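Hi everyone, sorry if this is the wrong subforum. Our group has a chain we'd like a structural model of before ordering constructs, and none of us has done structure prediction before. Sequence below.
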Amino acid sequence: MLRLIEDGLFSSAFKLINYDANNKNDGVEMFRRVMVVAVNVNPSANETFSIGTKTYTFKASGSTGDQIDIGTTRAITIANIVTKINLDRVSTGCLAYSIANSAKILLVKNALNGIDPLFVEDGDKVNEDFAWTTDIAEAKLESVNYFKTNITLDGAAKPVTLTERNAKSATNFLY
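Answer:
Right subforum, don't worry. Here is the predicted structure as tokens:
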């Protein structure tokens, strides 16, 4: 089962499902380019990474400006990274989202065209897992390393539920 997060991401980013010659799902094509960043271990104080025109520095606590607090766990650090990138979305050129793999972050480019935001890693703690692309192969969609939940280990995962938005209007759609 795939865990899709409705936060504007999938209603604006997915373009179509790719099919192979046998009409089998072969992945998805995106309107907006995406990349995945891995947070392999909690970074140390003063380590950095850059995205777009922003360079972020990790701090033990009390972060200000372009600094990100290191959490007591990797999950807390990732939440801090996602929040910071989203607050700076104009400068970073992208939005950040959590995906099924809690050690990875999905970046979605803001603009449909133009140069992809440059990602620069400092060391091997926060690094690019796969580069900017408009295609996510079925193998990645079906891999618990990215988007698929592990039913045995992720018992809280729920199937996708469609909800009506803008009911009884010309802009009604399911999400």
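For your construct planning: The first strand starts at residue 14 and ends at 19. The longest helix spans residues 74-87.
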